[in-house]
Structures are given as structure tokens and as C-alpha cells.
Amino acid sequence: MPSMNIFDIAGSGMNAQSLRLNLVASNISNANSVSSSLDEVYKSRQPVFKAELKNVMDMQNTSSKVSVVGVVESQEPTVMEYAPHHPMADGNGYIYKPNVNTVEEMANMMSASRSYQNNVEVLNTAKQLMLQTLKMGQ
Amino acid sequence: MAINFDNALGIHPQALALREKRSEVLASNLANADTPGYKAKDLDFRAALKKSMPSNTSMERTQEGHFSANDRLLGATMMFRNPNQSSLDGNTVEAHIEQAKYSQNAVEYQASLRFINGKFSGLMSALRGE
User: Fold this and answer.
1) What domain count does chain A have?
2) If exposure means fewest CB atoms within 10 Å of the residue's CB, which of A11, A77, B16, B121 is most exposed?
3) What percent of chain B is helix, strand and coil (3-state, nearest 5)?
4) Residue A127 contacts B, CB cutoff 8 Å
């Protein structure tokens, strides 16, 4: 009785990690996008993960998928720089730089890709076991 | 002398089902390795197996509504894992440990599968009578 639950679970993990990788790519590529106002400047984006419980009261159903609750913008202060000759400078001669920390993002990227690989391994092993189970008794 | 699959295969089908369930739990631990506040879980295989073993001291069921002590293999108790190093966000998944448990469980699953296949080929050669 091979259940296909494990594929859903590992798939949801891969889904979440690939979204995280996408956000890292977006953050890094926008790390130097200058803006002329505080509201328009790019802010670092981070995913929020949450374990998805099918039914809290059901003790049998304790395996849970990952769900992405949302994407939040980082609250860290953006960098304000005095550059009066910059084409994007505002009336007071300031430009605004995103609050992206590239070193943090690189570490984030490595963690996400390792987690993604873990989920792929889980999926491969489960697939092999299921195929062997299908051949049972032959 | 009817052929009874339950008698012929013994404990192995239940062990296989339990190991499959356990692989699901471990997979969800690994999938939630980066979820804040997630607590790693595991099934107690030994206790579950002991529960499903037919024993001489099984409790008598004198009425229809009584629970049987023996038929709850998949009701194996779920337990939370004690982390060696807990992380700041309350997540207790340690990926390397979960990976090790998962691969161990996969090998054990294959062992159960092999036992069942052995039983089947035994039955087949008994049927052929060669």
C-alpha cells in the first residue's frame, strides 16, 4: 500500500526552498538598485515558512508539509547616501540604497540549495522504495 | 488447510506499513528543516512492534466494546526528538540526524520487503511442488 504522501511532503519542501532561492536571486540582483526616495527603494525580501497541519486533533496525521505563508520585506534601515551629482539624487542631494546584505544572502542561498538537495534525495529514495514495492512477489 | 496470508507472512506486512509511515514522518522533518518553531518527530518502532506482537498474556475481551490491545500497530506513539543543539528559532530539526535516520529506515524497509518476497517465493515453490 504505497502512499504517495511522501512525494507531496518532499515536493512542498522543494517548492518552499525554490521560492527562497528566487527571493535570494531577486535580493542580490537588486542590491545596487539606487532610488531617489525612501518609499521607492528596494527592500530585502524574505519568505515565511510554516508547517502545515492537516488536522491537529488527528494523532495519525502528524507528518506535515511546508507552506509559504508569505513574503515579508526586511525592516532594517535603508542606506542613505549624500551624492548631489548622482542623476537619481533627490532635492537635498541624497540617494537611497537597498538594505540588502549580500553576505547574508549568500549564506541564505547555500542553506536553501542544501535543503533543496535534501528533499530531492528523500524523493529519489522514496521512489526507489515504491518501485521495489510494486515488484513485490515477482 | 487453507492458505492464510496473515499466517504465512507473519509480522512483516505490518512492519513494512510502519516503516513507510516512519519514512513519511522523517521526510516531513527534512522538509521542515527551515521552518521556525517546527519540532522534529519520530515513531517508536520497537514499542509499536512489541504492541503488535501476539503474546500469551494478551488481555481478554469479555465484551464487544472493549478495545483490543494488539491491533493498533499504526497507532504507534509519536514522540518529539531531543535536539543535541537547539536553534534560536525553536526548530529542533537536525538535518544530518534526520538524513541518517531516513536512510536507515529505507534500508530496513528493503529488509522487510525482502522477507516478504522470501515468504512469497517459499509459498510459490510449495504450490508448484517441484
Assistant:
1) 1
2) A77
3) 55, 5, 40
4) no
Rounded to the nearest integer, the mean pLDDT of chain A is: 89
Q: Is A132 close to B113, i.e. CB distance below 8 A? A: yes
ipTM, 2 decimals?
0.81
Q: Residue holding cell 510459490?
A: B124
What is the pLDDT, as a whole number, of residue A98?
A: 94
- For chain B, the residues whose C-beta falls within 8 A of a C-beta of chain A are 16-17, 20, 23-25, 27-28, 30-38, 41, 74-75, 78, 95, 99, 102-103, 106, 109-110, 113, 116-117, 120
- Answer whether residue B4 is part of any domain: no
Domain that holds residue A121: 5-134
Domain region containing B22:
10-52+71-128
Distance of CA A33 to the CA centre of its chain: 21
One DSSP character per residue, B21-32 reads: HHHHHHHHHHHT
In the three-class reduction of DSSP (H, G, I as helix; E, B as strand; rest coil), residue B34 is classed as: coil
Q: Is residue B64 part of a domain?
A: no
Chain segment A46-59, per-residue pLDDT in tens: 999 998 876 555 55
Mean pLDDT for A123-138 is 90
Q: What total number of domains does chain B contain? A: 1
HEC readout, chain A: CCCCHHHHHHHHHHHHHHHHHHHHHHHHHCCCCCECCCCCCCCCEEEEEEEECCCCCCCCCCCCEEEEEEEEECCCCCEEEECCCCCCCCCCCEEEECCCCHHHHHHHHHHHHHHHHHHHHHHHHHHHHHHHHHCCCC
